[in-house]
Amino acid sequence: MMQGQERGYGPQGGQYGAHHQQQQGPGGPSPQARSQFQWVPATNGSIPPNAVQGGREKDGKPLYIARQWYKGGLHPGKAAPHLDGFYMCYDSKEVQLKEYFVLCGPAKALQWIEVNGRVEPNGALWTPVTECHEADGKPLYIAKTRYDGGEQLGKAGPHLDSYMCFPYGDKERDAKHYYVLAYV
């Protein structure tokens, strides 16, 4: 276990704070593991059945893992009925979009890996969910952090100087202590 790492369970039973005990091998999880998940189109705050809840607001309202194309990249963020759409951060701003894709599948097949500082999954004993990227192809990982009494969703990447960023209160916020979504 990494120093300072804790174990627990996130929303919908997805493990959180744990790390995988065995190397998953080159290429990450099997195609079967990845095939359990799909990105379902949604609009205006709608959330499809079997959506993966990744975070929550300070009042307990759920936040769901979502993504959308923006300026040539495929960016992760959050969606929820009370948000009336999808929120992501880009260029130091909070961006709202009405159309997006929600991650759906068994949350128990995912885990949250604790990270302090820059995320470097190469050679790690876990494989991040790598379904997002910058316009230039650099990977973006689905991430969350504890902030203002809730768990906010955002993005992390080895190339990000801010380590992890997330949309909150009309701004892009940064975190050095956060969790990255990975396959169990």
SSE blueprint:
Blueprint: E1 8-9, E2 15-16, H1 31-35, E3 38-43, E4 53-56, E5 62-70, E6 73-80, E7 85-90, E8 93-97, E9 99-104, E10 110-116, E11 127-128, E12 132-133, E13 139-147, E14 150-156, E15 164-168, E16 171-175, E17 177-183
Parallel strand pairs: 2-10
Antiparallel strand pairs: 1-2, 3-9, 4-5, 5-6, 5-9, 6-7, 7-8, 10-17, 11-17, 12-13, 13-14, 13-17, 14-15, 15-16
Structure notes:
With about 180 residues, the chain is mainly beta. It has one domain (about 10-184). It contains 1 helix and 17 strands. The chain has one helix at about 30-35, and strands at about 10, 15, 40-45, 55, 60-70, 75-80, 85-90, 95, 100-105, 110-115, 125-130, 130-135, 140-145, 150-155, 165-170, 170-175, 175-184. Strands 1, 2, 10, 11, 12, 13, 14, 15, 16 and 17 form a 10-stranded mixed beta sheet that branches. Strands 3, 4, 5, 6, 7, 8 and 9 form a 7-stranded antiparallel beta sheet that branches. Strand 1 and strand 2 form a beta hairpin. The longest helix has 5 residues, at about 30-35. Residues about 1-25 have low confidence and may be disordered.
Mean pLDDT: 86
Query: What oligomerization state is this entry in?
Result: single chain
Number of strands: 17
What structural category do the secondary elements indicate? mainly beta
The biggest sheet amounts to: 10 strands, mixed
Regions with little confidence, pLDDT below 50 for 5+ residues: 1-26
Q: How many DSSP helices? A: 1
| End-to-end gap | 15 Å
- Helix content class: under 10%
Outline, from the CA principal axes?
Answer: globular
Query: Any idea how many domains?
Result: 1
What is the string of SSEs from the N terminus onward? Answer: EEHEEEEEEEEEEEEEEE
Beta-strand residue fraction: over 45%
Radius of gyration: 15 Å
